[in-house]
Write a structure and sequence with these properties.
Layout: E1 2-4, E2 9-12, E3 15-18, E4 21-25, E5 35-36, E6 42-43, E7 53-55, H1 58-65, E8 68-74, H2 79-88, E9 94-99, H3 103-120, E10 124-128, H4 132-141, H5 158-172, E11 178-181, H6 189-205, E12 213-219, E13 223-227, E14 230-234, H7 238-251, H8 255-267, E15 294-297, H9 298-303, E16 306-307, H10 312-324, E17 326-329, E18 341-344, E19 347-350, E20 363-369, H11 381-398, E21 402-406, H12 413-426, E22 442-443, H13 451-461, E23 466-468
Parallel strand pairs: 3-20, 4-20, 8-9, 8-11, 9-10, 12-20
Antiparallel strand pairs: 1-4, 1-7, 2-3, 5-6, 10-23, 11-15, 12-15, 13-14, 16-22, 17-21, 18-19
Helix pairs in contact: 1-6, 2-3, 2-6, 4-13, 5-13, 7-11, 10-11
């Protein structure tokens, strides 16, 4: 696999976010057509110089993939589509199917995995989100926050299912160093193979997990829509368009000038194909705020707090920003003697922050744009509104205690939140009950849980966690 090299990045304390890199070739071996340009530089058919790309062999990618657990969250998806997604995952990966489908559908999914195993011989585990044993295991291990107070089972929601899968991955696959996620409603299974290999390439570009935490987030090449009898290859989904814009406003205040200029040029019918008038400092660089396809080192997965439901992916960015930087709470001055201070690699941090713990290692976020388009079931406008409102709510409420972020360039937090609230009011994202953006539940990091006890309870009591593996 060949990708462009990561070049531009922005640092926020211990957090470093790289601008989007691209998959250039899925298989980079064999003859390449090379030409010499007017400057004497050798370029390939895609216009890249050799120094601008990096190539990973099958062996180097497989070394990472064999240490990776791929999680497939599902609820009510077509059985054939789930099967195709799972069978497209590289054979060296372990697979966890975490289902919140009705019990009868789950049994069909388990049967499907067993039949798939007879063909693929891959290591697979299935787990149901409403497994009573899983709820008991979480309660025993110190994660009661995940349980529904009414029936005592794990709460519904995508984020909750992903937390369950991470707990299973960390406790039952302790030697695996990476965990990745792919959605089960993907109509193009070939893209799943690319996603997993892109994860591996991202980790291969990063330092050893002992030195650095890493997260790889994918942006699809396009999200095609079928309109008027033909496909339109839309570059960004409706929800991502909203969430990415607000994350860019947070992380790069200059991006607002870029968005304003885009709106002006659109309204005056000026072409947007040439962005040379904008310096790199103004261009938005967060393109994966809502990335369902993402992966991270297992150690980072255990340290992250998780937001409930569809807020989970955007919340990663805000949680990491909070952990990486010195963030001042509202009404607390930097010079206050009442605030105990901690110093972490030269970054001063308040000790009165919420229960998020400061990062002890640097974190790198790589954003990779794929070659494959992503086809999945279409969602109605109301569902899309709930999704982006949940994502913005995670950002809005988690930033509420802070007046500023010291030492890095971000938006003014107070003004940023006011602008976000006004946007939500205008576009119907406000909760009728509270008059605010929805406030997602935020769960503590799994590192506080006793995962050895979680594993023992699951082994003894679970009847719905099914292992499908070679004897």
């Amino acid at each position: 696999m060949r990708l462009t090299r990561p070049v531009r990045s922005r640092s926020y304390g211990q957090l470093r976010i790289f601008d989007e890199i691209r998959v250039v070739e899925l298989d980079s071996f064999g003859q390449r057509s090379l030409t010499v340009d007017g400057n004497g530089d050798t370029r390939d058919s895609n216009g890249y110089k050799d120094s601008e790309t990096v190539t990973f062999s099958h062996q180097s990618l497989d070394k990472v993939l064999s240490n990776m657990v791929i999680v497939v969250p599902c609820m009510n998806e077509n059985l054939d589509i789930i099967r195709n997604v799972i069978e497209a995952i590289p054979a060296s990966c372990a697979v966890i199917l975490v289902s919140n489908s009705p019990r009868n559908e789950y049994l069909l999914q388990v049967d499907m995995l067993k039949k798939s195993f007879s063909r693929t011989r891959r290591l697979m585990v299935s787990i149901h989100q409403k497994d009573a044993a899983a709820a008991t295991a979480f309660a025993a291990s110190g994660m009661k926050e995940l349980l529904d107070p009414v029936d005592g089972t794990i709460r519904d929601g995508k984020g909750e299912g992903m937390l369950l899968a991470i707990a299973v991955a960390a406790s039952f696959f302790p030697k695996h160093r990476y965990v990745g996620f792919v959605d089960a409603d993907n109509f193009n299974p070939g893209s799943v193979s690319e996603y997993c290999r892109a994860y591996a390439a991202g980790f291969a570009m990063s330092a050893d997990p002992e030195v650095e935490h890493s997260m790889v987030r994918l942006r699809w090449a396009s999200k095609p829509k079928f309109r008027n009898g033909e496909f339109e290859f839309v570059s960004e989904g409706r929800c991502s368009r909203v969430v990415n814009r607000w994350l860019n406003k947070l992380f790069n205040p200059g991006a607002e000038q870029y968005f304003s200029e885009q709106s002006r040029r659109l309204s005056s019918a000026v072409s947007l194909t040439n962005d040379a008038s904008h310096g790199d400092d103004l261009k938005p660089f967060v393109s994966t705020g809502n990335a369902g396809e993402h992966a991270m080192t297992m150690e980072l997965a255990l340290k992250l707090r998780f937001a409930a439901g569809y807020a989970i992916e955007p919340f990663h960015y805000v949680d990491l920003l909070e952990r990486a930087c010195f963030m001042l709470r509202q009404g607390i001055k930097e010079s206050s003697n009442s605030v105990k201070r901690l110093s972490l690699n030269g970054i001063t941090r308040s000790a009165v922050l919420p229960h998020a713990q400061p990062l002890k290692k640097p974190v790198k976020i790589l954003q990779i744009r794929t070659l494959n388009p992503h086809f999945h079931r279409s969602s109605g406008q109301e569902h899309i509104r709930r999704m982006w409102a949940a994502g913005l709510g995670a950002i809005y409420h988690n930033l509420a205690p802070y007046s500023q972020i010291s030492g890095v360039e971000t938006a003014n937090i107070c003004q940023f939140r006011q602008d976000m609230h006004a946007f939500a009011v205008e576009h119907g994202g406000i909760s009728e009950e509270t008059g605010e953006l929805p406030r997602p539940t935020v769960y503590p990091a799994l590192e506080q849980a006793n995962l050895e006890l979680f594993r023992e309870v699951m082994k003894q009591k679970s009847e719905l966690m099914i292992w499908v593996r070679p004897v």
